[in-house]
């Protein structure tokens, strides 16, 4: 209970309490709004106008632009209702040549899936009452950027804003400094009215900070980066505003990742920021590095530093795999900054840019009014009164109610974040929270934070099993007790709930651009070159695989009218005409220039007259003679270029030229020609410019050469285009040939007269000639050295760069002593590129030179760095291997080590030393450095580094054992340990396997080791012991089990066990399912390979084709084909297997059965064929005599009847026919008539058969190819005898019945 005294009237008290209640409601609503914002999805947010469109007041006929910048994700769709331009996040509405009817209110509408937002701007168009020159506005804002603007001094002015000395697309590297700037020219200039300068990155305004500073000097605007980071990459825009008018200019800045300290290590993570802050923890998020170093990123280390100190501490012992992490263990009320480092298998990369400071405070506690239970007097001041509040002790505490709105706001593999609202019933005390969890489907609730109660209504849980499902609930507590639990959350599966963004790479050598959306404009491309691109997605869980590479895209310049020509000069002047020359436009618009148009005007007393066309038809050259001019008249000129896109803007007005007669237009001859550095195939020719340069300056030189004895018409030019240097290295000379040289100067008028001849000079390398040699000493100092053995007492060394003396150069230092000279570079850089030559005076042209180009510069700087900071050469980087007993060996090898070499062993950035766990060894003779560990345990997961120091030289090598890599290595070490233990007793050196022998039997075999006489071996099939006749003697270490004629009955699981008093080992072989099929395939293959060649056998029925195999199994499929077609089986053509014989029977063969027969034995995978060709066999198979048919097997006929039989025979030649009775020849007579007609038909007739005719008859056909016999039986019966016999049989049957 609180006691309140108010020193005001009751009405006043009512006012105070009412306002206090309103204030409390306001604070409560503000808190709820804050939490609502706190819990919203950070990856999706509604459109927001960063820069709203501004209202404008303009004159008629003037152009106006409305600009706005909009943020939101997904990227909002912007709708205008006029001409719109959207560029790099800046949206523009342009109204050309404003009319009075354009006065209105304009709306910009931005929309995405999260909502729609609009902004408004008014445009007021005024009419100009005085004279108005419409021609000043015809070109539009793009060619004449003028505007009426109202200054703070209240009058209308025309401002023209130009950007000079502009910054271009820039490339920098992380850690460097960079400045972007341009000169701003504003006309007219008004004192005390300075422009407003604003810089933007990707459409977002920039504010000065620790990393970026802006400067306006009055005429130049500068943006300076003190320490470039990858986050600084983007499109930069400078906007200069003068009153109501502004102009802007943009260019892209690319930032390359800094070189990693460890080659292959990842780059620094990006955009480290605080997602939310509480008393108990702060959630930090970041983006993946743009470069992973060539191997996947394994995780991240997070560092924290308390503001005001320089002490960084690591927040996590093992790398986290997600780009989000709750940092705990913070002190309430203190501020912290954070940074993140990425790690891959090579090592740890550079730390990221530090985050903004953030305080460990609970926002909900700030939003709620609270007072201490035993606090001091509080005075709340309000108008016209003082409200006194006196604390007192509670007579009885209230147990708080359950929290409300408990939910899981974030779930990853590493942690889960819970959020809830405080209970409505909580008394006046502060409350704390206890979080409980249980696995889904159970009621086993466990308190998570027993030792450390939570003060804020958000909590991060760690150590949850990935893939399991959990429920959570929260209880409140105070001094009165612990309240009831909240409602449990829904089932939550520990996994990822993260969003996505895109990254793009491209440009041949792959360049990564981070944080782009679904489209990206790539700057810095070279016109005419081809590029390929690829994309991959990124979210907090990591990077996806790259997309398929795009097709090669050639960069082509956009076609537009060319820019204006420039540098108009008068090449020659006559009494009534002038020859003008000009330079081609800087930008040709992406298409070839097709011609030029020239305009001119008279200038009288400094006042230009009316412009006139000089040519109706376009001229193709950069020069034109204008005729019909007035003598002694002054003229000005303009030139416009044209291409296929149209006519470009005219050039700036030229200087005034007077039309009068000129003389001596071309330059004079160069002089003082000199040959030096003469070698067998080259020399250097030098000269001085002509004294008289003609009407225009000398623009270059042409060098001609010919052999000394050649005629004048044999001069040839060495350079097709004029060179600007006053020297040329002539190459391609023939050794021993004498040459002469001459030089001609050229200016805009033409080529002048040639110089005097230089030479003759013989192309030869004189004995003792030496060259300039580059040297890098142990301190990394780079120098050029030259030595001359032919110096005279008066001789001196003269150094030059590009054949200009370097005597006063502050970047070089020359030291000469005796016949040696050395030129040292103080700080070799890009400014030092060029040809360095050393001449020796008072000699016969002794000289030498050395070229330092960009490639050589890089080589020398790298060599200098290696000498200044030497490294111990490494033959093998740090590697890990598992030894026989499961020991882990870390080792690397240096190329050489001295006796003073030292090695530091580092594990997770802490040095480790020799002891029970680690054994170190260095072999300085071989350079091998080793560290041994008996066993890999879970706490050994991390990064191992060997740091080498050998005198001044250093080096290091790192191996990362984290995650799956560590688990695989740990598993392999444990396997090797168990293998070593197994091998201490009898064991299998080679486990059980099978082999199919040449006899098509299956042999199960294994190889054993470490056995003795007492060692027993037992075979099992399907867990039943197999009795083996033979006793193994183990002499050869091979144990076998032979299975003959292997078939389906032999399928099963085979096992062999070795055992003695030292232990036992076993090996199993499964011959079921697929394994059995594989073995049977091999058995069938062996059987098929054992098949003999097909043979032909003539049988009584016809022809038999056959082959023998070792043995036959049903799994072996047999197929026959005849002349490429499968054989159709019938009663005449049959196939089968008899024992080990596989055969094809062709009965009664005919000529149609000739041809090629193939027997294919299919083992399940491959077909094995045997072939025989019946076409080339003897005629006896097909032309031998044979009986085709017609004779029955048995003939039963009544006595006295006539028997007539007809039979068809065949043979070539026609066969001879004979008959047999009871295996004796039968001749034809009146009783038995035998006929054979046409060589095809045989007739057999018996007239009046009797019982004597009963018997076995045979028809024998025969020709020279063979014979065949067809037998039949004739049975003659008497009817009376048959009846008598039937009656007799009936009587016998009756007696038996009685």
Proportion of helical residues: under 10%
| Tertiary shape | extended
* Backbone CA Rg: 53 Å
The helix tally amounts to 8
Distance, first to last CA: 135 Å
Characterize the main sheet: 6 strands, antiparallel
Pfam family, one: I-set
Function: Major component of the vertebrate myofibrillar M band. Binds myosin, titin, and light meromyosin. This binding is dose dependent.
GO molecular function: identical protein binding; structural molecule activity
Domain Ig-like: 47-124, 152-254, 760-858, 986-1072, 1197-1275
Question: What are the defining features of this structure?
Answer:
single chain; 1298 residues; mainly beta; six-stranded antiparallel beta sheet; 8 helices; 9% helix; disordered N terminus; thick filament; structural molecule activity; Striated_Muscle_Regulatory
């Amino acid at each position: 209970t609180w006691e309140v005294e108010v020193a005001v009237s009751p009405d006043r008290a009512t006012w105070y309490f009412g306002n206090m209640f309103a204030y409390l409601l306001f604070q409560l609503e503000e808190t709820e709004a804050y939490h609502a914002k706190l819990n919203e999805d950070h990856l999706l947010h509604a459109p927001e106008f960063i820069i709203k469109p501004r209202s404008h007041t303009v004159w008629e006929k003037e152009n106006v632009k409305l600009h706005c910048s909009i943020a939101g994700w997904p990227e909002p769709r912007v709708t205008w209702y006029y001409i719109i331009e959207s560029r790099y996040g800046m949206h523009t509405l342009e109204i050309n040549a404003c009319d009075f009817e354009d006065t209105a209110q304009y709306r910009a509408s931005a929309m995405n899936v999260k909502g729609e937002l609009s902004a408004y701007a008014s445009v007021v168009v005024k009419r100009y009452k005085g004279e108005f020159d419409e021609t000043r506005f015809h070109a539009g804002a793009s060619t004449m950027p003028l505007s009426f603007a109202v200054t703070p001094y209240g009058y209308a002015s025309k401002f023209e804003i130009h950007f000079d000395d502009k910054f271009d697309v820039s490339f920098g590297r992380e850690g460097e400094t960079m400045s972007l700037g341009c000169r701003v020219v504003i006309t007219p200039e008004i004192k005390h009215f300075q422009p407003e300068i604003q810089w933007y990155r990707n459409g977002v305004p920039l504010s000065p900070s620790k990393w970026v500073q802006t400067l306006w000097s009055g005429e130049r605007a500068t943006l300076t980066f003190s320490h470039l980071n990858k986050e600084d990459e983007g499109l930069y825009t400078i906007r200069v505003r003068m009153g109501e008018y502004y102009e802007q200019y943009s260019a892209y800045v690319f930032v390359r990742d800094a070189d990693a300290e460890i080659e292959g290590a990842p780059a620094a993570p990006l955009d480290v920021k605080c997602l939310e802050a509480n008393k108990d923890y702060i959630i930090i998020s970041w983006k993946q590095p743009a470069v992973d170093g060539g191997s996947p990123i394994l995780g991240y280390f997070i560092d924290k530093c308390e503001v005001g100190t320089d002490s960084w501490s690591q927040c996590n012992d093992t790398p986290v795999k997600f780009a989000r992490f709750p940092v705990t263990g913070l002190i309430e009320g203190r501020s912290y900054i954070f940074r993140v480092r990425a790690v891959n298998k090579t090592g740890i990369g550079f730390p990221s840019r530090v985050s903004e400071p953030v305080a460990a405070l609970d926002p909900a506690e700030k939003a709620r009014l609270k007072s201490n239970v035993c606090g001091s007097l509080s005075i709340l001041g309000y108008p016209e009164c003082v409200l006194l509040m006196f604390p007192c002790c509670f007579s009885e505490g209230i147990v708080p109610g359950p929290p409300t709105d408990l939910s899981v706001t974030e779930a990853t593999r590493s942690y889960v974040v819970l959020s809830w609202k405080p209970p409505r019933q909580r008394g006046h005390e502060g409350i704390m929270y206890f979080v409980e969890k249980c696995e889904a489907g159970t009621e086993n609730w466990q308190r998570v934070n027993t030792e450390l109660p939570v003060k804020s209504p958000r909590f991060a849980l760690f150590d949850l099993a990935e893939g399991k499902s959990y429920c959570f609930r929260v209880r409140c507590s105070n001094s009165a007790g612990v309240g009831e639990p909240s409602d449990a959350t829904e089932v939550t599966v520990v996994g990822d709930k993260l969003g996505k963004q895109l990254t793009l790479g491209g440009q041949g050598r792959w360049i990564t651009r981070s944080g782009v959306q679904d489209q990206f404009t790539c700057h810095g491309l070279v016109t005419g070159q081809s590029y390929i691109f690829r994309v991959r997605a990124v979210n907090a869980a990591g990077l996806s695989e790259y997309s398929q590479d795009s097709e090669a895209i050639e960069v082509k310049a956009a076609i537009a009218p060319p820019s204006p020509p420039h540098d108009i000069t008068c090449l020659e002047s006559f009494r009534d005409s002038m020859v003008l020359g000009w330079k081609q436009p800087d930008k040709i618009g992406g298409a070839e220039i097709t011609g030029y148009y020239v305009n001119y005007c008279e200038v009288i007393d400094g006042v230009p007259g009316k412009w006139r066309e000089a040519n109706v038809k376009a001229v193709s050259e950069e020069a034109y003679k204008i005729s019909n001019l007035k003598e002694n008249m002054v003229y000005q000129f303009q030139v416009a270029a044209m291409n296929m896109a149209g006519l470009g803007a005219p050039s700036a007005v030229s200087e005034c030229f007077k039309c009068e007669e000129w003389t001596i237009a071309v330059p004079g001859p160069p002089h003082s020609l000199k040959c030096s550095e003469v070698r067998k195939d080259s020399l250097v020719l030098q000269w001085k410019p002509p004294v008289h340069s003609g009407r225009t300056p000398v623009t270059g030189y042409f060098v001609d050469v010919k052999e000394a004895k050649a005629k004048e018409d044999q001069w040839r030019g060495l350079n097709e285009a004029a060179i600007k240097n006053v020297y040329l290295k002539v190459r391609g000379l023939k050794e021993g040939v004498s040459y002469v040289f001459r030089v001609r100067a050229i200016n805009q008028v033409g080529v002048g007269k040639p110089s005097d001849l230089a030479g003759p000079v013989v192309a030869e390398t004189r004995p003792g000639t030496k060259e300039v040699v580059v040297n890098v000493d142990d301190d990394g100092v780079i120098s050029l050295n030259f030595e001359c053995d032919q110096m005279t007492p008066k001789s001196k060394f003269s150094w030059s760069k590009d054949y200009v003396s370097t005597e006063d150069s502050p970047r070089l230092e020359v030291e000469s002593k005796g016949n040696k000279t050395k030129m040292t570079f103080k700080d070799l850089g890009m400014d030092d590129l060029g040809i360095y030559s050393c001449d020796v005076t008072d000699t016969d042209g002794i000289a030498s030179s050395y070229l330092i180009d960009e490639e050589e510069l890089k080589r020398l700087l790298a060599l200098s760095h290696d000498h200044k900071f030497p490294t111990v050469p490494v033959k093998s980087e740090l590697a890990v291997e598992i030894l026989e007993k499961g020991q882990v060996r870390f080792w690397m090898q240096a190329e050489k080590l001295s006796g003073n070499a030292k090695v530091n062993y580092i594990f997770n950035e802490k040095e480790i030393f020799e002891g029970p766990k680690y054994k170190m060894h260095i072999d300085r003779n071989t350079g091998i450095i080793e560290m041994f560990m008996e066993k890999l345990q879970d706490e050994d997961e991390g990064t191992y580094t060997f740091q080498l120091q050998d005198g001044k030289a250093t080096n290091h090598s790192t191996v990362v054992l984290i995650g799956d890599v560590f688990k695989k290595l740990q598993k392999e070490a444990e396997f090797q340990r168990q293998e070593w233990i197994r091998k201490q007793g009898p064991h299998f050196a080679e486990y059980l396997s099978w082999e199919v022998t040449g006899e098509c039997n299956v042999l199960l075999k294994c190889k054993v080791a470490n056995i003795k006489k007492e060692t027993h071996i037992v075979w099992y099939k399907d867990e039943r012991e197999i009795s083996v006749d033979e006793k193994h003697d183990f002499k050869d270490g091979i144990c076998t089990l032979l299975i003959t004629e292997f078939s389906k009955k032999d399928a099963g699981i085979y096992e062999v066990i070795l055992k003695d008093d030292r232990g036992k080992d076993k090996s199993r072989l499964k011959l079921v399912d697929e394994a059995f099929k594989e073995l049977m395939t091999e058995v069938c293959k062996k059987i098929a390979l054992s098949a003999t060649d097909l043979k032909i056998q003539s049988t009584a029925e016809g022809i038999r084709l056959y082959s023998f195999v070792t043995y036959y199994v049903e799994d072996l499929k047999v197929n026959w084909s005849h002349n490429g077609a499968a054989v159709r089986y019938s009663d005449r053509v049959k196939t089968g297997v008899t024992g080990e014989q596989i055969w094809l029977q062709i009965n009664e063969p005919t000529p149609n059965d000739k041809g090629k027969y193939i027997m294919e034995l299919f083992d399940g995978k491959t077909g094995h064929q045997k072939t025989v060709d019946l076409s080339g066999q003897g005629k006896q198979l097909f032309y031998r005599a044979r009986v085709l048919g017609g004779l029955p097997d048995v003939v039963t006929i009544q006595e006295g009847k006539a028997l007539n039989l007809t039979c068809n025979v065949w043979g070539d030649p026609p066969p001879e026919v004979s008959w047999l009775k009871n295996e004796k020849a039968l001749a034809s007579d009146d009783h038995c008539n035998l006929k054979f007609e046409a060589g095809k038909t045989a007739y057999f007739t018996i007239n009046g058969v009797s019982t004597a005719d009963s018997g076995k008859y045979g028809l024998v056909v025969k020709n020279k190819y063979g014979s065949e016999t067809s037998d039949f039986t004739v049975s003659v019966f008497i009817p009376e005898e048959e009846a008598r016999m039937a009656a007799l049989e009936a009587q016998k049957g009756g007696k038996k019945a009685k």
